[in-house]
Amino acid sequence: MLNSIKKTLTGVATAACMTALATGAPATAQAKTDLTMYYPIAVGGPLTTVIDGMVADFMKENPDINVSAIYAGNYNDARVKALAALSSGSPAQLSVMFSIDLYELIEQDAIVAFDDVVTTDEDKAWLKSFYPTLMENGVTGGKTWGIPFQRSTIVMYYNKDAFRAAGLDPDKAPATWDEMVDAGKKLTKSDGSQWGVMIPSTGYPYWMFGALTMQNNQVLMNPAGSKTHFDAPATIEALQFWKDLGAKDKIMPEGTIEWGTLRQNFLEGKTAIMWHSTGNLTTVKKSATFDFGVAMLPAKQRLGTPTGGGNFYIFKKTTPEERTAAMKLIKFMTSPDRSADWSIETGYMGVSQAAYDTPKLQEYVKGFPYAAVARDQLEFATAELSTYQTGRVRKALDDAIQAALTGSKSPEEALKEAQETADRLLKTYQ
Amino acid sequence: MYLSPNVMRHVHGWLLLTPAVILLVAFTHYPTVATVINSLYSKGTAIRPSRFVGLANYELMAEDPIFWKVLFNNMWFALGTIPTSIALAIVMALLVNRALPGRSFVRMAYFTPTVLPMIAVANIWLFFYSPDIGLIDNIAAWFGIPGHNWLGDPNTVLPAIIVMTIWKEAGFFMIFYLAALQHIPPELREAARLEGASRWYFFRRVLFPLLMPTTLFVLINAVLNSFKLVDHLFVLTKGGPDNASNLLLYYIFESAFSYFDTTYAATLTVLLLALLAVMALAQFFLLDRRIHYR
Questions:
Q1: Would you say the pTM of this structure is higher than 0.90?
Q2: For a Cys staple, A380 with which of A5, A219, A237, A303, CB 3.0–4.6 Å?
């Protein structure tokens, strides 16, 4: 009701006056644009206050725009809530959602390409100002649909005290798969009080797996999102390696490892190495009671990690005024200065080179070099698994990974089945 | 205009019914019918609009191995939770129904899990079950038992969830039994004692039959709960590993909101509705006859 009144206000002037008279609303409200933005948080920690602070700063600078930023749970919840709001007719104008929701959102005809929103040359140059690797999940069919915001890669956190106790060099993190297995064997205690390494396999198993396959020089899908490579020999080899960490090398617990409690496991010293999102960095830094290090993931054929995290999207059901306002907000949130703040507060990456060129982030990286690991790793990164029918395709791979890790199927068998499922789902898109 | 008193009475009656009818139609009957209709259409996207496909979604369902897996999981989940939580509820109710030091404290302790939201419970148990650092593995370590990855092993994940659900539910059912026990006249116990009946005999032949109406009520609730309680899966396992803990309603949620396949979700929902209806009716008709109502 309020919303519709306000829309009328920004619409036809006479109607606006009449509505204003009828409802007794002050005429000064006329120029205000209301934006509703959903955003997710996947790693826990007090990130909502950071976002609220940024939004408050934005409204101070832009008194004519009123933003209500709504925390919407994890990535799945955020998508569900935003799309539910869209179909219920009280839509949000923009949202931070999973970068890999791209194809689903396009298929639902829910979002608008940024190429259709930007007009000036300056804006077009702005589209090019982000790290190209971060844009991979936001670009398809020659158009840009998502602007990187809370972006991450997977990094390796390791417990330097545990390395010292095991006679390993704490300043030299394992750089290859073999080195990691060797170190893991020295770090694992036979009474089960400390494991060598943990790679989480619930929540987002396909994401961790994307790192392992990339390191084995294999991507999981084609850039058009219409074909997967789940049964490629290098993919199978990567899953075999993951499974062997638990089953053969005994440096990781067998079965699946919970995404949500892994950070706690690491902080309590139950594992000497963990692979996790760089979005955990600031929390680990604040809570670790031991000396810890952060390194790029180890290599097999090459270094590799998928990018991850959330992009900004603008919804299709928006007026030109709302789109302009949304652009303003997105530009503000991803500006080098804000991006630097965001990176320092959370551990997520700065989204452009310019963010890392700001004095404050340079200063921070100087005092805490691990803050730059994720960025340095970008050079070797690839897009996160994202296809048409992405929910089902992803689930097929997740199930295959979990089946292999828990020993109910061999890696080859599990991945072949996943590939068949994916082929069936994607047949009509090829 | 003159209306006969008879007509007026009908109008009056219908007016009184209207609020309830509107609510029922809007929130029960319309959604049910809409779900059935939806299940006969294909998944629609902006590019390919939805079209009528008859029973194709049901054929798809019959061929979907995950569907069969979650259905059997659900059956095991029901078999695992219902009898145990009812038995526990009766035992707990009997315990706190008599004079006991700190009786209200014990009652409260039994009832506490019920008061907690399922999501909170699941978050607590997530750390109970967490390998090595969790409460359960910590206690096991005192006895030299090595840690186990409870939620990460397909063989233990469903039992682990069943145990948590029993813990959550038994206290709730206890309240009903406790209320029922308080209405059983004490003369019966005195008479049984005079006759020399043992406690077990008294329970088996007197108390338990008198509790049957409560048992029916609790049973229906327990069956419904075993199909409709999935909040904990969001926190604990997301149905994993490899669907080992996936339940029907969670699969419906996944289909609708992760895959955006709302028509397939509708198909699964129709099946769930049919299952629940059949079970509720069976319980009413088969058990009701054998229940002694005072």
A1: no
A2: A303
Which domains are assigned to chain B?
Answer: 57-288 (1.10.3720.10)
* Residue A392 · residue A421 · CB < 8 Å: yes
Pick from B260, B261, B262, B263 the residue to mutate for testing the A interface (most A CBs within 10 Å). Answer: B260
Which residues from chain B sit within 8 angstroms of residue A44, using beta carbons?
A: none
CB-CB: which of B154, B237, B261 is closest to A202? B237
Structure-block tokens of residue A161: 């005290």
pLDDT band at A14 (very low <50, low <70, confident <90, very high): very low
Q: Is the confidence at residue A255, as pLDDT, over 60? A: yes
Say if A2-151+308-366 and A152-307+381-429 have the same CATH topology: yes
The CATH number of A152-307+381-429, from 3.10.20.30, 3.10.180.10, 3.40.190.10, 3.40.640.10, is 3.40.190.10
Domains of chain A, residue spans: 2-151+308-366, 152-307+381-429
> For residue B234, which residues of chain A lie inside 8 Å, CB to CB?
none
> Among A253-267, A276-290, B93-107, which stretch is predicted with the lowest mean pLDDT?
B93-107
Enter the tokens of residue A269.
């010293």
Question: Within 13 Å and on the Cβ side, how many CA atoms surround A342?
Answer: 25
Overall average pLDDT of the B79-84 stretch: 93
Closest partner CB to B133 (pick from A76, A264, A408): A264
Domain A2-151+308-366, what architecture?
3-Layer(aba) Sandwich (3.40)
CA nearest neighbour of A302 among A242, A380, A374:
A380
Residue B265, helix vs strand vs coil:
helix
Rounded to whole angstroms, how far apart are CA atoms B44 and B64?
Answer: 20
Residue B33's alpha-carbon distances to A164, B19, B29, in angstroms, are 66, 20, 6
CA triple B29-B30-B36, angle to 5 deg: 90
Q: Which of A108, A257, A270 sits opposite B46 (nearest CB)?
A: A108
DSSP letter string, A340-384: HHHHHHH-PPPSBHHHHHSHHHHHHHHH-GGGGHHHHHGGGEEPP
| CA–centroid distance for A152 within its chain | 5
Helix B135-142 crosses helix B118-129 at what angle (to 10 degrees)?
40
- Confidence label for A20 from pLDDT (cuts 50, 70 and 90): very low
- When CB atoms are compared, the residue of A195, A256, A261 closest to B241 is A256
Contact between A144 and A127 (Cβ < 8 Å):
yes
| Per-residue tokens: A83 | 């799309």
Per-residue pLDDT, B1 = 59
Q: For residue B66, which residues of chain A lie inside 8 Å, CB to CB?
A: 399
Give the mutation candidate from A256, A317, A390, A426 for the B interface (greatest B CB count, under 10 A). A256
**Range with lowest mean pLDDT among A43-57, A260-274, B188-202, B214-228:** A43-57
Give A-chain residues touching B152 at CB under 8 angstroms.
Answer: 201-202, 253-258, 405-406
* pLDDT (0 to 100) of residue A18: 39
User: pLDDT tens digit string along B110-169?
Assistant: 888 888 888 889 989 988 988 877 888 888 888 888 778 888 888 889 999 999 999 999
Q: Pick the residue of B130, B158, B243, B263 with the most A CBs within 10 A to test the interface with A by mutation.
A: B130
Q: What is the pLDDT of residues A72-101, one digit of tens each?
A: 888 888 888 888 887 777 778 999 999 988
> CB pairs below 8 Å between A and B: how many?
100
Please state, in angstroms and rounded to a whole number, the distance separating the CA atoms of residues A10 and A8: 5
